[in-house]
């Protein structure tokens, strides 16, 4: 008779994942902290601790005096990953600090790739996201071999390094000008061109575009699309409000714009989380929305569904985005190339009272 199928618990599966990471040399000397492991393995802290206790009991780990878990038994051989279909995901920080759409996409991506037989390794390393990341990236990629890389929230210097190295890398976002890496993103050029035309049709001629400082490909495409729309109206004015992503910095820029001789009558905002700050600060200054100014969000977020007035915004079908990313990553890991290098999804305009 065949043996009965084993119904493994989540703790047992987590133990297997940790052992595999140690055996492949994915972690050296010490394991990362519990929060990072929970994020990369997508398990609760209770499940993780039970798995770590089991590995310690089996002699794989020991707890140091600083409560760090040192790897005792390991077969350090990073080359073992070369025969596996490893897909590495690199992000600057926890998915919990990113938009809800990103968390959904990453959860779907990990689940579907794992079911298809790939090994998905998630890395959080803010040091790779500096203005001069070459040295850090060279060592990090050498220590974590993979068939394909997916990088999130990436700016031009990091894109340029992966492009120069000719590594199989895909961007979750838009490629900067001159970068030839495959990418999956919203069509921000078309989105902001539509937003510009929409605001023009509603009588606005002084439009402010609010976005954080940086050289993100999606923001560059957004500005180009907005300018393409406004150039059709010679009397249209565009004011770029580039902020440092803090509430204080954003409010200071708004105050400066309000004090100008011809303040904006419409604000297009590039991050959904900053829309709330802008609306509250404008109303605190006695500016009525939408009677005095219009506010339009380039991005979507569940929190924008609960505001009053409701926010006009653009949204894409997140399951469709996740599916396109899964297909592209499988092609990249298996063949080194992607059939459609630049995937751009057309968003839907969601009408709101704010504009």
Q: What can be said about this structure in brief?
A:
The protein is α/β, with parallel strands linked by helices.
What does this protein look like?
With 355 residues, the protein is an alpha/beta fold. Among the domains are: 1-76, Winged helix-like DNA-binding domain superfamily/Winged helix DNA-binding domain (Arc Repressor Mutant, subunit A, Orthogonal Bundle), CATH 1.10.10.10; 188-315, Response regulator (Rossmann fold, 3-Layer(aba) Sandwich), CATH 3.40.50. Helix content is 40%, strand content 18%. The protein is built from eleven helices and 14 strands. The chain has helices spanning 10-23, 34-41, 45-57, 100-115, 134-143, 156-165, 188-201, 217-230, 247-259, 272-284, 318-335, and strands spanning 61-63, 69-71, 86-91, 119-124, 148-152, 169-172, 183-186, 206-212, 237-243, 266-269, 294-297, 312-315, 342-345, 348-350. A six-stranded parallel sheet has the order 4-3-5-6-7-13, sandwiched between helices. A six-stranded mixed sheet has the order 9-8-10-11-12-14, sandwiched between helices. Strands 1-2 form a two-stranded antiparallel ribbon. Helix 4 links the parallel strand 3 (86-91) and strand 4 (119-124). Helix 1 (10-23) crosses helix 3 (45-57). The model is unreliable at 1-7 (pLDDT under 50).
Describe the main β-sheet briefly: 6 strands, parallel
Quote the average pLDDT.
87
Q: What is the N-to-C succession of helices and strands?
A: HHHEEEHEHEHEEHEHEHEHEEHEE
Number of strands: 14
Beta-strand share of residues: 15-25%
């Amino acid at each position: 008779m065949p043996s009965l199928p084993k119904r493994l618990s989540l703790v047992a599966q987590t133990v297997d994942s940790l052992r595999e990471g140690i055996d492949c040399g994915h972690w050296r000397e010490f394991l990362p902290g519990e929060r990072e492991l929970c994020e990369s393995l997508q398990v609760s802290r209770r499940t993780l601790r039970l798995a770590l206790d089991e590995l310690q009991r089996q002699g794989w780990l020991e707890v140091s005096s600083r409560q760090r878990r040192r790897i005792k038994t390991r077969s350090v051989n990073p080359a073992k990953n070369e025969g596996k279909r490893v897909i590495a995901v690199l992000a600057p920080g926890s998915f919990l600090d990113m938009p809800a759409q990103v968390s959904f996409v990453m959860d779907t991506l990990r689940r579907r790739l794992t079911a298809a037989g790939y090994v998905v390794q998630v890395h959080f390393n803010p040091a790779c996201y500096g203005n001069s990341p070459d040295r850090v990236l060279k060592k990090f990629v050498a220590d974590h071999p993979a068939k394909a890389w997916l990088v999130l929230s990436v700016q031009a210097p990091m894109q340029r390094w992966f492009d120069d190295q000719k590594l199989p890398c895909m961007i979750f976002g838009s490629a900067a000008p001159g970068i030839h890496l495959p990418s999956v993103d919203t069509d921000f050029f078309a989105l902001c061109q539509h937003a510009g035309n929409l605001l023009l049709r509603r009588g606005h001629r002084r439009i402010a575009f609010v976005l954080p400082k940086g050289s993100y490909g999606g923001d560059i495409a957004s500005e180009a699309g907005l300018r393409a729309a406004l150039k059709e109206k010679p009397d249209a004015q565009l004011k770029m409000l580039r902020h440092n992503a803090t509430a204080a910095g954003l409010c200071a820029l708004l105050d400066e714009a309000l004090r100008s001789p011809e303040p904006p009558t419409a604000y297009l905002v590039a991050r959904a989380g900053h829309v709330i700050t802008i609306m509250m600060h404008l109303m605190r200054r006695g500016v009525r929305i939408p009677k005095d100014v219009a506010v339009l969000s380039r991005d979507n977020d569940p929190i924008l569904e609960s505001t009053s007035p409701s926010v006009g915004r653009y949204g894409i079908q997140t399951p469709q985005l996740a599916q396109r990313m899964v297909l592209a990553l499988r092609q990249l890991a298996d063949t080194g190339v992607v059939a459609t290098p630049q995937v751009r999804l057309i968003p839907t305009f969601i009408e709101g009272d704010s504009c």
